[in-house]
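sanity check this record:

:::
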Amino acid sequence: MAVNLDGRSLTLEQVEAIADGAECRLAAAAKEVVRASRAVVERAMADGRQVYGVNTGFGHLARVGIPADKLDELQLNLIRSHAAGVGKPFSERSVRAILALRINCLVRGHSGLRLATVQRMCEFLEHGIHPVIPRKGSVGASGDLAPLAHLALTLIGEGEVFYKGKRCPTPSALRRAGLKPLRLEAKEGLALINGTQVMTGVGTLALLKAERLCTAADVIGTMSLEALMGSHHAFERAIHAARPQPGQVASAANLRKLLRKSEIEKSHADCGRVQDCYSLRCIPQVHGAVRDALRYVRGVLECEINSSTDNPMVFVQADRLVSGGNFHGQPVSVALDHLGTASCSLATISERRIERLLNPDLSRLPAFLAHDPGLHSGFMLAHVTAASLVSENKILAHPASVDTIPTSAAKEDHVSMGAHAARKAARIVDHVGTVLGIEALCSAQALDMHRPLEAAVAVESARAAFRRTVPHMKKDRVLAGDIDKAKRFIESGKLRAAAEKVCGELK
């Protein structure tokens, strides 16, 4: 089903669907809004009014007037000069999200560009023409200027794109798709590059992934809890009702569902252990705090993806163009820093559970879960990998939004670093998926070693599904492939789905 873009009702899930290949189209009402917005710009030019970015220079050069016969050249020069990004390009998936968000912003009617220009961006999505957008070069000042300039560059037939999975010059892809380069008119170049859609697109995909990992972490945490013969009492409803933090309550409810009917729990009912370590006992408190943080991030992004972030802003009813600062990425930058720092906790507590599973002094299981410790090293180095990623996350967690550096002859004297926050958050969340994959490898191995005792029925369902992807390790083998398979299995939602078949829907 195609996603209708009207500038007002887009959801984060729809952004992800477009990123994954779903079609999108302009809502009929949005087309009329775009036409009306463009008419305001054309009247301003006809009246000879001086408007920033329409018939003036940019940034520090805003006082320089541009003759009427140079206005198209002004926009062309803007795009070429601002396409100064460097580094590895964003994935095609990220670029599709960025394109969708840019379209949705432009059809709100505050940008003043032609309908044909917006439709060309829709055609790029339809034909699978994905601009090559370097990851580095934005400071989140007038939005994501450099990355969005690389996007705009391809609309005029310059730069590079990915087409049918291969990187190629834009003119080649346009010819093969039966499209011609656009010629930008007054204000269009500026409208295309003022905005927060790069940081928001990358951040949206990272947030949705992190939200899914929260529930996966609950499932994997119960696998470890059962393997380590932990107590179920810490998850009783009354405890969490006494401190009703929403995320904590949700996570605890998941654990209660997942831990029903456990032979392992019955086997150590009279063990005399008073209470468990924090990485087991406090799963709801830690996982839940991440959930609460992500709820805040979701609210910011849901607002941003249906907002106007252009400059100057077009107001149709007032027939005015007004300069402002909606392009500034600070709201998004702060939220995405929060996404990154909060997500770290899912990995740090997971790494501690991995340590307990592999340490024979703590687990009462064979060292490193090897069947013949000494001859075999088991999961020793898998833990080292998890520790490495957790430590790298600590470095990445330094907030980007506290930084600023003046640019554009001090006209842009406070910037958001929103693209940095987005890229860092995405890397952190990706690391979290890997660490949880390693924990799943270890907890599944440990559960196997408890046979014939079985864990809670939902946990056993998750373990069995996992085992169909990654087999039990009887002797040492190369673990890199297993780690990758485990990560992909968890991120696919299949582990969660296997548990839910038994215990019902998880939060």
Summary: The beta strands are 3-5, 24-26, 86-89, 129-131, 134-136, 160-163, 166-169, 313-315, 320-322. The CA atoms of residues 331 and 487 lie 31 Å apart. The chain has a mean pLDDT of 95.
